[in-house]
Amino acid sequence: MLARRLALLSLLPSIPLLPGGCYGGTTGNDAGGAATDTEATSEDSSGPTPPTTTTSPATTEPGGTGTGTTAGSADGETGTGLDTGGSSETGMEPVGSPGCMAMQSLEEGEHQFMLDGHDRRYILRLPQSYSADQPWPLVFALHGNGGSPDYWDQTGGDRDIRTAFADDAIIIIPEAIDNQWRDYSAPPDTWPERIELELNFFDTVLEEARNGLCIDDANVFSMGFSGGGSFSGVLGCRREYIRAIAVGGSVIYFEPTECIATPAAWITIGDGELNAGREEFRDFFRMLAGCADTSTDGNPMGCVNYDSCNADTPVTFCSHPAGHVWPSIGTDATKAFFEQFYAAG
């Protein structure tokens, strides 16, 4: 594995190393324009510390009384060592989290807590037939820079993931610090610290979900658009609990030498946003998964499945004719891509 990662790094000479050890891609931001990554085209020095318990009317404590308190702990590494114990692929039984035995479940809706000095928030959407009697896949859905959870928390339209996964998966829609997964107005040497803060946030939210809901530990996914897709790449690279990612309009936020995981990947780029930075993101995950640069036609039209990928990490690329937007094919194609890992369970 180490040899393959070193070989991969040697093939990425065009990704500049930014101050602080971050790779930024050719364009320097997700939108491909000026140094502000907004979704105007598509949307209307200490380390991480454990979270501080706060109260919120829409938030419940795992296994608690439902009074609105949220609690949890994370040391920045809790998400990398989850005991998945197996896989729900190829007919094996899904592996359930501690929340499968919890007396009470997390409530659907908004959850808030304090972590590392920041007010944090996420939206939880449960399958319409949710029960703790079976483990459920979990999908993180990340908004773009300058956006909010409302980007995905809607019904109808091309981004209707709530309907798409209504019978299939738990959805968590997190909110970035200052609504930006990367603050392009801040000095680049501050970006690595921001990544660590956000990774601690995801570790904390996942642990809360695992303790308060019945999660299929082998099937935790991340999807996102623009900056949200870019940070999904961070999760896929830095956290072994991410089974697969599905992203659009994304660039590399992470330092490739720090990758410890290899996710399956579904990646889309619009013809009007195609540039070297987005191609580098796509090609990085293709090579990380051991795929060749040849491919066969996939579904829907405009998609290809790369050849010779490692069996458990397929990579699909879909082009679409628009610019920097989540494409009309995106939601259904993402569901189909994720579904291949849990449908046989």
Summarize the structure.
The protein is an alpha/beta fold and 345 residues long.
Key traits:
globular, single chain, Rossmann fold, alpha/beta, two-stranded antiparallel ribbon, ten-stranded mixed sheet, 345 residues, 6 helices
Give structural notes.
This protein has 345 residues and is α/β, with parallel strands linked by helices. It has one domain: Alpha/Beta hydrolase fold, catalytic domain (Rossmann fold, 3-Layer(aba) Sandwich). It is built from six helices and 14 strands. The strands form three sheets. Strands 5-6-8-7-9-10-11-14-13-12 form a ten-stranded mixed beta sheet, with helices on both faces. Strand 5 (109-115) and strand 6 form a beta hairpin. The longest helix has 22 residues, at 191-212. It is globular and about 50 Å long. The two termini are 28 Å apart. Mean pLDDT is 82; it is low at 13-27, 33-49 and 52-90.
